[in-house]
Amino acid sequence: MVSNVYCPFCGVILLPDPYWDGPETPQSSARPWYARVRGIYSTNPAVDHIKITGVGVVRGRKTLHAPLDSNRVYGDVAFDALDEWRLCEQSDSQWCFGFHESCWKMLILRLNHGRVGSLSQTDTAIPEMVFYQLYCTPCLEASIFHFGHDYAGAAETHKVFGRIQPVDLNSHLYADPCAISVMNYPTDSSSASEELGSSRGRNLSHGNSTVGSLAEVGERRYRAFRNLSTELLLEIFSYIPFEQHLTLRLVCHDLAVLADMSMLSRSYWRSRFLLGQEADFVFPCLSESQNWFRLFFATRASLKAATPPLVNRKRIRDLLEPIASLVDLDSIFRRGPGGVDYCPSPMRGNNFTLVDIEGFQAGPRLAKVVGYFSGQLAYIDEDCPLQEGCRVLYRKAQPFMVPQEEHEKRIGISTVKIGARRFISGINILPSDEGNCVGRLIGYRNPAAETCIDVPTNLFIKVFRVAFCAEGLVGIQLQYDNSASSRWIGVSNGPGIAQGTLQIPTRADQYHLLADIDRFKIVSLGLAEWIDDHQSSLHRTRSDVKEPFHTPSQLWVPHAPMHEGLLVSLLLPSEPPRAFEPLSNIDFGGPGGRCLMSLVRLDFHMTSYPHPLIGIGYHYADGKSVFFGSTGGCAISIPINGPSGERISAISIVEDNRDFYQSEGLGGLQVSTNYERSIILAPLSYRLEASVTPIPSLPPGRFITGLVAHQKTYGTHFIRIGIQSQFCDEPSTIPHILDRECHLVPDNEIRYDEKFSHFINGSNSGNYQSYASLKGIRKIQASAGISGWSRPHNGISGLKLEYYNHPSPAIVGQWMNELEDGFDISPDEEIQSVTVWIAPLGYSSESPGLAVGHVAAIRFKTTCARSVTFRSPDSHTFPTGMIRNEYQRCFDEDLTAISWIFNEASDRVRAVNSPHRNWRPRLLVPEVSPPFDQVQKLYFETRNDDTCPERVVTIEAYFRGRAIIGLLFVYRSGAMASTGDLDTNSRQAVHIAQDDNIVGMSATVAGSELVEIDFEVEHSASPKCQRLSLAFEPPYTPETAVDYGWRDVWCKDRAAVECTTQQGGSDKVYAAPRNSRLMGIYIGCQRFSSVGAIYEPDISH
C-alpha cells in the first residue's frame, strides 16, 4: 500500500496535486503552499553530491514532478519535461526527500538572519547538512520523519495509509507561513497602549525617541545594582525577554523607573527580532530602518489574535531550529569522525567476534569484541532512505589505556541535538593536562556541547553505562572501581530508552573503544581486547559495513536485573536476534522475592491482533504502582493475594492457532498461581483455538519474581515474554480451598460470549471476556474509569468479587480506580438480580441501529431484600437514552455467574442463569437463540418452599409515557416478582380471581417500546374468556399509532388462532404447543419490548 508523505520540517501533508484530475494544466493554476514541493536528492551519497530540485507537485502520493533546475517552478516548463523522483523510498530511477517550498524559504531565512552579506555556509553545505539529517533520521513507513516530537500539533493530522485527513482551512496548520509581510503590520501604537496599560500622555511613539535623562534615575538605583552604570543595566535589559521585562518592573520602585518603556532605546526593540529572541520568527531585515517598537507590538497583537499565518510561521520556525543549528555546525561534521578505521575480520572465534583495527605501522591488528551495544542498526543499501532505527556510515576505534595510578584522566562527551532529542556525538579521552597529550577522539567533538568528566586520581574506570534508543547513543555514565559513579551525560531513561553495561577489562592491557557512527552521532559502542600478537599480521579483508558482524550485548529498560541469584528464562515465542532488542525488567518481586508478600494485582493492557499486549503494570498493598509500556487498550487485571501467600507459579504464551489467521508473535498470556487459578489473557475470538506454550518451568525452590519483555522498536507492543525467578526468603503458604471452581471459565460460556459480543461489534479482534462466579460472595467492590484510559471517570469500569470459599478475589471488567464503598454479603445471602445501565456512545458498525457504550451503573439485589447501586461519584444523573439490562433469578433458576465482555470502546455485562437440577423443561414461544435468548421469567403460577403451587392475583404495569417499563406480579401469599423499572408513579393493575386461569395473552410494540399487554383469562364457572388490558392509551392499532410496529398474540388453542385477526403485516399469532399449558411471560434482558410466552409440558399427557 502506498503511504502518504508529510513534510519533515513542519509535519503537514505534502498534498498530492489537487489539479491532477482536473482540466487545467499545472501552468495555469496556482497550488496551495502545502502542495508546492521541493526535493533534495543525492546523485552519489558516498561523495556528498547533493542537489535541490525546483518547485514541483506531487502526484500519486509518492512521486514528485519538479524541474531539475532549483531556480525554476513547475509552471516554467511543460509538464512532460518535469523530472520525477520517488519520495522517501528507494526507486529504480531516482528518489528524494520532499518538503514544502515555504518551509525551505523559512529555513534559508533562519540561516541568513542577522548575518552581514551572504550565508556563512557554502552553497553546497546547506543541502548536504539537510540531506544527511534526513538520510540519518528514520522516515517511518516512508511517510513520517521520527524527530522525537509531535510537530507542535501537526502529528494529529498524520495518517500513514489510506485517505488523508481533510485539509482544514480554519486551522493555522494549513496557513502559509510565508504569507506575511512586515510592511503589512499596523503603524499605530494602539496595540502597545492596550498591552502596557499606559496612562494618557505617556509617549509610546518611539520613531524618533532617544534615551531620556538618566541623571535623576542614577540617584535612586536599586542597591543590588549600585556598582553598575545605568548604560550597562540597559544593555543587560536587552537580553531579557519582554515578558520578563514587564515582571522586572514590579520588583521595586527603582527598577520600575529604570525599566520604564520610555527608557528603552530603539536597539532594545530591534533586539527582540535577533536570533533566540521572542520575535525572531518574523525575520525582518535588521540592517534596514524600521519602527521596531511598533513592529514588535504589532507582532504580539497578531499572535494574541491567533492570526493563522503568523501562528504557523512561529510554529515552523521553532521546529526548524534544531535543523538549522545542525547546519551551522557544518565545519565540525564535515571533517568526519575521529578514530582509526576498523572492520569485521573474516576470522571468527567460536564464542567471540574478531575485528581488524587499522592505524599501526605493522599493519592491522586483530582484537576480540568483548561488549557491544547499538541502536536498531538498519543494514540497507547506501542509496536507500532509512525507515527505522539508524545506519552505519563509519566504523571507528580508539585506544583506551587503563590509567596508571599517578595519572588523572579526563573524558569529554560531546552531544548533538537532532530534532527534539540529544545524542552522543563523540567521546574524547585525554589527560587532565590537555597541553601534554593530544586527546583520543572517537566520533565528532562539539566544543559548544561538550561535558568533561574528570576521573579521580587512583581510581579505575570499571564500567561504562550506556543508554541507547533505536536511533543511537543518548547517554553515558562512568562507574569506578570503588563503586562511585559520575553523573549521567545525556539522557539515561525515558520512552524508548534502554540501558546497558560495558565492563572494562581488569588487567592493565590495552583495549579499544569501538564505535559505529553516522553523519552526526554514535549509533553503537563496544569494547575490544587485543588477541595474540602473532595473529595481528594476518591479512585484513575488508567487509561491507552494511553487514552485521557481531551479536550485541543486552540492553534493559529501565535497568538490568541485579538481584543475586536471579535467573532469566528464554523469551518466547522464539525469534532471530536483532541489533536493538531492549528488554523490559519487570521486577515485581524485588530482591529475594521480598515484595511478593505485598503484591496485590497485575495489570495487562491489551489491544487487538496481531500483537495485543501493549502494557504491563503491578500494584502493591501500600498503593505503589509501576507500569511498563502503554496504559491504553483494555486493562485486564489479575488480583493476587500476596499477603496471604499467593504466588505466580507459571506463565505461558498464547498464540492464535486458527488455520486462516496465524499469529506472528505473542498473542496473549496465561498466568497461573499456586492457589490453583489460571487466567488466559487473549482476545475472545481465539480463546478456545489458541495454542498455549509454557515458558520453561522453574527449578525446585524458585519462584517467579518478575517478567522480561521485548517491545517492538516503534510502538508499544510486547512481542516476546520471559520470566525472572529467585530463591525467595519466605516460602509461600497454600490455604485449604473449599471452592476450586469459582475461578473456572467453562468453555460453553466462552462460546456463548463469542455470540454475545454481537453487542460490542463481534468481529472486533480486540474483544475480551472476564468471568466470575456469583456463588458464595463475601463482598462486592466497584471501579470507576480513569481519564486517559479506555474508560472515563464518570462510569463503572469493573467489579471485584471476594469469596467465602476461596482466598483470591476475581475481577470482571477493567479495574482502574477503586470506589470507596463496598457491599458486604452474608453467608446465607445470594444474588437475586443484576441490573446494568449502559450509557450509549454510538452505534454498532455491524448492526445498524444497535447502540453501544460504556457501563454507567450496576445494581445488585439480594435474596434478603437488600440492594446496592455502584456508580461513579462524578456521575450525578443518568443521561437520557440509557440502555437498561436486567437479569434475575426465579423459583427454578439461580444467578450463578457474571460475564463482562469489552473492547477499547464498549462494554456489555450479563449474568448467567443456571436451572435447578429438578427443573421441569420450559418451552419459549417464540424460541430465542443466542445472543438474544437471555430472558427474565415471570410465572403465573409459582411454588413456595413446600412446592405447593401459588397463583398470581395482581399484575401491575409501570409506565414512562406510553411505554411499559416494568411489570410486577403479586401472588396469593403476598410474595412478589418483578422485572424492569418500577421507579415511576404511572402504573396500572389488573386482578385475577382465585380460580381463574390465564390461557392467552398479547403484546403490542410501537416504535421500539412495549405499549400494551393483554391477558386472556378463563373463568372456572364460565366458558367465556375475559380480556384484561394494561395500556396507557389503548387501543394501539395501525390506524391509531403512526409508529405501530407489531402485535404478537398467544392463543389458547389452534381454533382461537383461526379466529384472531392480524392488524398489521408484522403481526404474529402463536398457538399453544401441543399438550402444554401457559405458565408465564418472558421479557428480554437486553430489550424490554422483546416479549414471549412460557409453556410447560402437561405431564398428565
TrEMBL record:
PROSITE patterns: FBOX. It comes from the Eukaryota. It comes from Aspergillus eucalypticola (strain CBS 122712 / IBT 29274). Residues 222-272 form the F-box domain. InterPro entries: DUF7600, F-box-like_dom_sf, F-box_dom, Jacalin-like_lectin_dom_sf. Pfam families: DUF7600, F-box. This is F-box domain-containing protein. SUPFAM superfamilies: F-box domain, Mannose-binding lectins.
